[in-house]
Each structure stands twice: as structure tokens, then as C-alpha cells.
């Protein structure tokens, strides 16, 4: 019994068995199917400082870093390195150097991920240095000071620091990059962390072949980009799979300069679009919403912007229509993917978007899909089912977690996404629900189980449940915590509850990344609803949270 398998409408191109670095910077003629571009072509532009990183300069520095990693840091092929920081030229150097050296790059934010990844070195931005110093006590393996590298220029290095900056690792000698030909292309290149369908963050083993497959196929159903006329705006974090592919890697295969920002800032983004005549931009739904209501866009000439791709979370048809109405010169489309799909799997075409189709589009080349019902049978057309996907872009598995891999991968190489979809008569998909309980806050993944485990470490909390509550004004879910207070506190009045809620929220905020803070509030309840087996009934909490949130919003009006 094969079930009903949906196929991509696009032919699958030839995918070379080659390493990712060789695919982008071919070591010899015929090694890659990627186009070649002049070394003087701009690859990245810092949208804040105006610094330009040229293609040849990036290639040369990556090879010199490869030498430095080996000779100064004593790193060898197959070792894993963590890279912690926002988008920057230095971040790009660190990762491309790791690619050239045959290292596994693990963009990360917490000690858990450093411990789990088995990393041998840490590259950290100055903005994260204090957090790193605090987290060192939680590291399970010793990390020598000479293997902590600052992502900054020498002149910005703090006085008296015991750490080198990345420019001090550059060797005068450029070594040949490591090659991953044939079956070696199935070795891991990136280890981004994802909560998958549920549970704590897991390291997704993304291979060279996964990324090469994605770059060979994902541009086929997109509007073509030109190295002569296009520029891409990239403020999404390159440490996440979406930004990693769409900003760090793919533009180089199309010769399109990426204008990077460390994070989203409305005025800086608008200024960059105007100054660099940006034609393409990567957004998330909250940014689309901001642009729709922005009072600042009339102050800038952004008519060069022709295309906006929204990802990481669903974009409603109302927001798409409102964006097109305000910016008729730009088309907004969306797609679907996961870290586990490297990351894209579905992509809406601009003509469908303009025609009013608001789903996530059609399968990318090489992808197959099934919609599977709870009873295991395949859904009929028009019926809802869990989206299962298969392609050469699907991850190798979860690092050091065969149990989670087995739960996520079905026989035949199918990835169970945990999302519920429907398909129309033109094989266009729409995501309508999700099996998983993952919270998506402004495009970031937030695992309820991770925050619940943290809350239980708070001495004043004896039980906890975390859910997402949707805030229409921000077009995103907000992480919200429900806690049971320790009886010894004697919490009775509303003032007592308000004080404890504020205290717990601040306690959590001091221990997690910004997108994992309980910005949806902390609510004190008598008991967390659970099943007889002890599983938290988050569906009950979600319903309660949404009712409370909507009532609160109406009261403010």
C-alpha cells in the first residue's frame, strides 16, 4: 500500500555529489552546477556601516581561516564549532571558514546546545560575551580560552581580554578547502537546533547534500534573480535555518548581494532599501504587519522593492491583501519549511499570490508529500491530514538522539512535520492547523517543554504549563506561562499574584534568549490541567489563554 503521493510539478535538476563550499566556490571546472561570478562582485553589504565584502575576499579569508583553525586552534575535519552572534561580516567569516575547514557549524544560543553538540570551540559576538561568561559554569566539558574567538574587529576587542578576535586567527597562508565528494557529501555540515514536532531543542544534522539539493531546486519555482539588477535585504538571523539558506548561502549562487542587518530595525531597514535599491526582502508576518501600518515608509523611496518573501510562520490572507494594497509595486509570497527540510519544502508563486491564493504554494522540485490521517490512511483531496515530506533535502536525523529521529521519520524516508495541511485542485497546499504544540514567536521556535522545565527550577513554582497565545495586533503567538505557586508563599490577593507573576517573568527573562521570554504573561492558577497519564493538556490552557487574552484586549478598548 503506497498511499497517495503528491509530486512536484517541476522537474528535479541534477544534484552534484559535492561539498557545500565546493558548490559555492568550485575548486575546478565542472565540480558545481552553480554559476561563476567575478571575484570583484559584492557578496555581502553591512547595511549599517556600509562595509562591502567581495566574493573573492570571502573566498580568500575562508581558506586562510581554515589554516588558522588547524594551526592555532588545533581543530580538525569533523569537529564541531558553535557560533553565537547576530548577523555580521565577522559571523559570515567564521561560518565560511568552518565550511572550508570541513568543520560542523552549530549556530547556538544556550549552554544546552553547546553541551549537546560536542563543540570544540566557541565563536561569540561581543554582545553575547557577558551571557557566555555566565554560561561557562554550565558547560559539561572544559573550554580552553584559546578556543574562544570573538566575532569583532581587532580595534573593537575589549582591553585586557584573554580571547583572540577572528581576525587574529587569519593565517597568511590559504590552504585548499576540504572536499566532500561522492558519499562524503552525506556528512553533516550544519547543526541548527529545532524543537521538531515537540519536546526540547534537538540538533538537526543537515548534510552538504541537503544544502546543495536545496540550492539546486528552491530557485526553480521562484521569480529569477539577476546579479546585475537585484539586491536582497537580510535581517533574519543567519543562525536559523531560514536565514542560513536564504541569506548566507543561496545569494552567492545567484550573484546577488545580500544587505545584512544585525536584527530588524524599521528605520535602518527602510534606509537600506533606499540606499542599496533592494529588490527582494525576507520578512516574517510581524514585519509585514508593521509595514502595512508604518508611518515611516513615505519618508523613504522603497519603490525598488519588487518581491517580499514571508516565512517562519503563517501569513494570513488579510495581511497579504493589505500589503499588496499599500505596496502595489511589491508582491508578497510565502512558503513552508522546517529546519529538518533544510529548510524549504513548499513555495507560493507570485502569480498565485497576486490571484489571491494565500497558502504556502506548491512542492519544490524533488519533493514528495503525503497527507496522513490519524488512523494512518492518506487523506482524500480536500481532507485534512498531517503533512509528511520526502526529498534529498530532508535532514540526516537528530544529533545523538535516535529516539527522536525514529519518532519523526517514518519508513520510506518520510518526515512527519506535525503540521496539518489541505491541497486544492491545483496541488497548492495550505497549512490549516498543527499537531505539534510548538510556539512560533515572530518566526522563532519556542518549545513549551523547555520553558516548563525551567519554570520548575523556580523555588516559588511547583508546577507549570506553557502555551502560545495569538496576539492579532502583533501577528504572532506570545509565549505564556501558567504556574502553580508554592503554598508556603500564602498567595491570596490579586496584588500578591501580580507581584509573583512579574517576579517569575523577570526570572525567566534573565535565563533565556529574548524570543523565549514569557511576553504573553505569567498567570497563577490552582492546578495545571493534565491527563490521567500526567501529560499537560495544553489544548485546555490554549483555549483559556486565548479567552483571557481577548477579554483583556477588549477591556483596554
Automatic annotation (TrEMBL):
One of its GO terms (molecular function) is CoA-ligase activity. SUPFAM superfamilies: Acetyl-CoA synthetase-like (SSF56801). Residues 36-399 form the AMP-dependent synthetase/ligase domain. Residues 450-535 form the AMP-binding enzyme C-terminal domain. Keywords: Ligase. It comes from the Eukaryota. Belongs to the ATP-dependent AMP-binding enzyme family. This is AMP-dependent synthetase/ligase domain-containing protein. It comes from Apiotrichum porosum. The lineage of its organism: Eukaryota, Fungi, Dikarya, Basidiomycota, Agaricomycotina.
Amino acid at each position: 500500500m503506497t498511499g497517495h503521493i503528491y509530486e512536484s510539478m517541476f522537474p528535479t535538476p541534477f544534484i552534484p555529489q559535492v561539498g557545500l563550499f565546493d558548490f559555492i566556490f568550485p575548486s575546478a571546472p565542472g565540480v558545481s552546477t552553480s554559476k561563476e561570478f567575478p571575484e570583484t562582485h559584492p557578496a555581502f553589504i553591512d547595511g549599517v556601516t556600509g562595509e562591502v565584502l567581495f566574493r573573492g575576499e570571502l573566498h580568500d579569508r575562508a581558506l586562510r581561516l581554515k589554516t588558522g583553525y588547524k594551526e592555532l586552534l588545533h581543530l580538525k575535519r569533523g569537529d564541531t564549532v558553535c557560533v553565537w552572534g547576530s548577523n555580521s561580516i565577522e559571523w559570515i567569516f567564521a561560518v565560511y571558514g568552518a565550511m572550508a575547514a570541513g568543520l560542523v557549524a552549530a549556530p547556538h544560543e544556550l549552554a544546552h546546545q553547546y553541551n549537546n553538540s560536542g563543540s570544540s570551540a566557541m565563536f561569540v559576538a561581543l554582545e553575547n560575551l557577558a551571557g557566555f561568561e555566565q554560561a561557562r559554569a554550565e558547560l559539561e566539558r572544559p573550554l580552553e580560552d584559546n578556543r574562544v574567538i570573538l566575532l569583532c574587529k581587532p580595534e573593537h576587542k575589549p582591553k585586557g581580554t584573554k580571547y583572540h578576535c577572528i581576525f587574529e586567527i587569519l593565517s597568511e597562508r590559504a590552504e585548499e578547502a576540504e572536499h566532500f565528494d561522492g558519499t562524503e557529501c552525506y556528512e553533516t555540515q550544519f547543526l541548527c537546533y529545532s524543537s521538531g514536532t515537540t519536546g526540547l531543542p534537538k540538533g538537526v544534522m543537515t548534510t552538504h547534500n541537503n544544502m546543495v539539493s536545496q540550492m539546486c531546486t528552491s530557485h526553480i519555482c521562484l521569480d529569477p534573480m539577476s546579479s546585475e539588477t537585484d539586491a536582497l535585504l537580510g535581517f533574519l538571523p543567519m543562525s536559523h535555518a531560514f536565514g542560513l539558506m536564504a541569506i548566507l548561502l543561496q545569494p552567492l549562487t545567484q550573484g546577488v548581494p545580500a544587505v545584512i542587518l544585525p536584527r530588524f530595525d524599521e528605520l535602518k531597514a527602510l534606509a537600506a532599501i533606499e540606499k542599496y535599491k533592494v529588490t527582494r526582502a525576507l520578512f516574517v508576518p510581524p514585519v509585514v504587519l508593521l509595514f502595512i501600518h508604518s508611518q515611516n515608509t513615505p519618508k523613504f523611496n522603497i519603490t525598488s522593492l519588487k518581491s517580499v518573501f514571508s516565512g517562519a510562520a503563517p501569513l494570513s490572507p488579510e495581511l497579504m491583501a493589505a500589503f499588496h494594497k499599500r505596496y502595489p509595486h511589491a508582491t508578497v509570497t510565502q512558503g513552508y519549511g522546517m529546519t529538518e527540510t533544510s529548510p524549504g519544502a513548499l513555495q507560493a508563486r507570485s502569480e498565485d499570490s497576486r490571484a489571491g491564493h494565500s497558502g504556502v504554494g506548491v512542492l519544490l522540485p524533488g519533493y514528495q508529500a503525503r497527507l496522513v490521517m490519524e488512523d494512518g490512511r492518506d487523506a482524500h483531496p480536500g481532507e485534512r491530514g498531517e503533512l509528511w515530506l520526502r526529498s534529498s533535502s530532508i535532514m540526516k536525523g537528530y544529533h545523538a538522539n535516535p529516539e527522536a529521529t525514529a519518532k519523526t521519520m517514518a519508513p520510506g524516508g518520510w518526515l512527519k512535520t506535525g503540521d496539518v495541511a489541505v491541497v486544492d485542485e491545483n496541488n497548492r497546499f495550505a497549512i490549516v492547523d498543527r499537531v505539534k504544540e510548538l510556539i512560533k514567536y515572530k518566526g522563532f521556535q519556542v518549545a513549551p517543554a523547555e520553558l516548563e522545565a525551567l519554570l520548575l527550577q523556580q523555588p516559588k513554582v511547583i508546577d507549570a504549563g506553557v502555551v502560545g497565545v495569538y496576539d492579532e495586533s502583533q501577528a504572532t503567538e506570545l509565549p505564556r506561562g501558567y504556574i502553580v505557586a508554592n503554598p508556603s508563599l500564602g498567595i491570596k490577593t490579586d496584588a500578591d499574584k501580580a507581584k509573583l507573576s512579574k517576579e517569575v517573568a523577570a526570572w525567566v527573562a534573565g535565563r533565556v534568549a529574548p524570543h523565549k521570554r514569557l511576553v504573553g504573561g505569567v498567570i497563577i492558577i490552582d492546578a495545571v490541567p493534565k491527563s490521567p497519564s500526567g501529560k499537560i493538556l495544553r489544548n485546555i490552557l490554549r483555549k483559556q489563554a486565548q479567552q483571557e487574552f481577548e477579554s483583556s484586549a477588549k477591556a483596554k478598548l
